[in-house]
Amino acid sequence: MSDSRLIFVHGNGAIVEGAIQAGCRFYAGYPITPSSEIAEEMSKRLPQVGGIYVQGEDELASINMIVGASMAGAKAMTATSGPGFSLMQEGLGLAVATETPLVIVNMMRAGPSTGIASKAWQGDIMQSRFGSHSDYEIISVYPWSVQEAFDLTIESFNLAEKYMTPVVLLGDAILARMRERLYIKQEEIIDRKRPSEPEGKYMPYKRDQSLVPVIASFGEGFHVLKDSLTHNENGYYYENPEVQAKYVRGITEKIKKNAAAIEKYESVFTEDAEVVIVAAGPMARVAHSMIIDARKRGKKWGMFRPVTIWPFPEEQLKKSVQKAIYVIVVEMSTGKLVYPVKWSINDNDRVKLVSWLSYEAPTPDELEHLCEKEVNG
Amino acid sequence: MEETLAHPLEKYLRTEKLPHMWCPGCGIGTVVQAFLRAVDELKIEQDKVVAVSGIGCTGRIPQYIKFDGAHVLHGRAIPVALGIKLARPDLKVVVFGGDGDLASIGGNHLMHAARRNADLIVIMVNNFIYGLTGGQVAPTTPKEATTYTSPYGPDSKPLDAVKLVSAAGGTFVARWSTAYPVLLKESIKRAFSHRGFSFIEVISQCPELFGRINNFKSTYEIYQKIKKVGTIRRGISPYDAKYDWNSEISLGEFVNFEAPSYYDQLREIIEKAKGVKE
Questions:
Q1: Residue B13 falls within a domain, yes or no?
Q2: Is the complex ipTM higher than 0.85?
Q3: Is there a domain that residue B248 lies in?
Q4: Cα separation of the two ends of chain B
Q5: Is the residue at B29 inside a domain?
């Protein structure tokens, strides 16, 4: 649909709108709060556009179904939360290993374990990067508004197709349920490349200078093998140290070396800021209100918001904190985002953490009070 | 010059991947050959078949046969295969897996694929043991047998996958053994023309890991045992089929009836939804 329209919807609904526009025609998921509205809406919308909706028997089935659908050429996604995201980690690794594009939404909730299903937390920042075993890189984005949830869903599908990788779209219980205006308009859609070489000569896991392989979908006549085992450019398993090294380099460097093109961030009043607040997702909304208020009262405060959490926009953060005496990371956890911030900034003494351990977001005043304490001791 | 004759099924093999990794005497090769012959005799387009497997000795089949293939996680071949099938309903999607892969770690998916009448052919090679990991007990291991993790015998009685799949709603359910490769091939051919969920269990010999520890001195000896214990029964209910290492493992086609497949049911939903106005 090319017409633009304005609707009033929650974050989960915006993700569904984005997915449909991005060309997602396969959804498999298992109900879990606070992501279930995505499944409910998908079960209604996908069949209307000729797509397939499956409620998997569990999260393991769901993630593996979307891997299969994507291997056969469909744009596919799932949505889950905490416990379900844990269950999906092995399947996420399979998508990484076979370089299968897909989008996984993880609406973060209070944990660990079952925690509090309907309440927000920001505890899965590290899990979205390191949750599956062994060596890999991933793309993860974290919107802060309903509009951005829509925009970044399309962006997630585009990145997945462009870099042949799973993309984790992080949200939290606040983003999932908050309702805002959403302006829907046609965005640019990227589809995965198709092989240009004939069968016999074509190698599915060979990389050109883009570092991203052109992998045929099933049913295109290339007899491709997509193997979870370590594989060479043909996709064939070989137990060989050079094949292993090249394989791991291949799947990690395509993200690392393209990081500058992938990264997104927002930097607000940081040029002269003496205090830079770092926050992501809806928590950054509070931080944003706080620094605007603080500016009005003459405080030289600014905010840096990573939009892609992984790869973390290290260079951009460095530029944004050049004048900062303090860099305060504000998050709804005991401290996850603070690590990539510390990795990015050499002088770590100035990095402070405000760890907000309530599932209700702070008010700007409450947050300012806590940040002041970090600055003034 | 002497002419080298190609194997009649060579075009279906990834010859550059040979030799294969299976032990001498293993029954998996018999299953591969029966499958390839079925494809060849039915003249199914090579570009229209996808072979999907999880982890295990049987899981290696897609590495050697030249169709589109996915060798995925332990236990997860069925959901991956179902995703492929639903995205490309014109393709024939076949799952190969061992008893551990499909009936243990993947048991939930097996049950639900049968319930849905998923448009898949699932070929389960049952050698009563975890082969690739070195001979551990499986949910299919007979009570009388010994394995490396059941030195005093298995702790519980084995699962009969034929009954499980039948009870869950499978519309084509068969069991054969490596002793009857021609009947297995014919059954695979019927599975290809069946609409919905086809499940074929193949009782197979693992001479190295199940055979040795259970005092079968050679491939011949364990093969003879499989030949003897497998008894063909025609027209019996899956619930009357036996799975007993001491007396009889019943072979045959126990279920074969038509019902709307999973894809048929999803098409119906799509048709309904297209009539829905927002």
A1: no
A2: yes
A3: yes
A4: 74
A5: yes
Domain that holds residue B116: 20-273
Calculate helix-pair angle for B77-87, A59-71, nearest 10 degrees: 50
Residue B80 within a domain: yes
Burial bucket for residue A259 (CB in 10 Å: 0-12, 13-18, 19+): middle
For the segment A291-318, what is each residue's pLDDT rounded down to a tens digit? 999 999 999 999 999 999 999 999 999 9
Q: Collect all residues with Cβ–Cβ distance below 8 Å to A305 and sequence separation of at least 6.
A: A144, A265, A266, A267, A268, A278, A279, A280, A284, A287, A288
- Give the one of A50, A218, A222 whose C-beta lies nearest to B270's C-beta: A50
Q: Whole-model pTM?
A: 0.97
- Domain spans of chain A, in order of start: 5-184, 266-376
The DSSP output letter for B13 is B
Architecture of domain A266-376 in this structure:
3-Layer(aba) Sandwich (3.40)
The string of pLDDT tens digits covering residues B144-203 is 999 999 999 999 999 999 999 999 999 999 999 999 999 999 999 999 999 999 999 999
CA distances for A216 relative to A12, A15, A198, A219, angstroms: 32, 28, 11, 9
Distance of residue A50 Cα from the nearest chain B Cα, in angstroms: 6
Topology annotation, domain A5-184:
Rossmann fold (3.40.50)
Q: What is the CATH number of the domain that holds B247?
A: 3.40.50.970
Distance (Å) from the alpha carbon of B76 to chain A's nearest alpha carbon: 7
Q: Is A76 on the interface with B (CB under 8 A)?
A: yes
Residue type, B119: D
Element (H, E) at A205: none
| Partner-chain residue, chosen from A68, A236, A237, that has the shortest CB–CB distance to B83 | A68
